[in-house]
Amino acid sequence: MATGGTGDILTGITAAMIAQNPAKPLLAVCAAVHLHGLAGDVMRETVGEHSLVATDLLRGLPEAFKRAREAAGSKFVEWDG
Predict the structure, then answer these.
(1) pLDDT 10s digit of each residue in the chain, 81 long?
(2) Which DSSP state fits 74?
(3) Domain boundary assignment for the chain
(4) What is the DSSP track for 38-55?
(5) CA triple 56-53-33, angle to 5 deg
(6) 70, exposed or middle or buried, with CB in 10 Å at 0-12, 13-18, 19+?
(7) Which DSSP string corresponds to 15-40?
(8) Whole-angstrom Cα distance, residue 81 to residue 43?
């Protein structure tokens, strides 16, 4: 996660989360950081830790959302369940 562009991906996820819930920016940031890390974990399983690049995180986001939903036991990921 220390390669060029991964911070840009995190910034984009964060902006999207804040835009969806501007009343709770801290919660939005926490959700973005969690999803960013989870997407990294997903892609580490696929491409490996050493060859991971920023665009891999984008490919891992759908699975990261799926895993977050499953962990929450819900069809949708909710802000405050």
Answers:
(1) 788 999 999 999 999 999 999 999 999 999 999 999 999 999 999 999 888 999 999 999 999 999 998 888 876 666 664
(2) S
(3) 6-72
(4) HHHHHHHHHH-SSS--HH
(5) 70
(6) exposed
(7) HHHHHH-TT-HHHHHHHHHHHHHHHH
(8) 27
In this structure, which amino acid lies at residue 5? G
Structure tokens at 77: 């990921």
Which value, to the nearest 10 degrees, does the dihedral of the CA atoms of residues 9, 21, 27, 45 take? -40
CA distance 73 to 11: 27
The number of residues making up the chain comes to 81
pTM attached to this predicted model: 0.86
